[in-house]
Amino acid sequence: MVSAFTGGLVLGATAALMWKVRRVGVVVCVGTGAMSLPLAAMAAHLPLVLVAFAACAAGTGLSLSMTVWASLVQERIPKEKLSRVMSYSTLGQVLPVPLGYLAAGPASAHFGVRATLAAGAAAIVAAMIVPLLLRQVRALTLAPSEAAEETLVSAPR
To answer: Residue 21 and residue 25: Cα distance in Å, rounded?
Structure first.
């Protein structure tokens, strides 16, 4: 599973290098939402190969999401405030992980492993959908790069 997830991280990073994302907010939310796939696959008791594909998709989505988010933050935040904003952003991304680990054991003991996995997947999907309800999130875009602008200006019409 770790190898499949890591392979997905590499795929996502590669995609981020090649793809000029238009709708940053949508890509960040959906990419992060992909983290629900392995949990849902395990909750559904799918075959191991499908769980591995879900882990790969989760890695791809997460890597793409993180790269696009970092690009947006670096573009929009003044340089003198960037390190503080990135620190808060990283804290917000990392803090839920150990809290989820702490809750998973007791929840699994009380509700069962499959129900806990399904609830975790549902929580991630909810965390993906709620920001997408905001038009401002769906409309987030990166500014066109200068090289892309030059290509657009100099391209024959």
So the answer is: 10
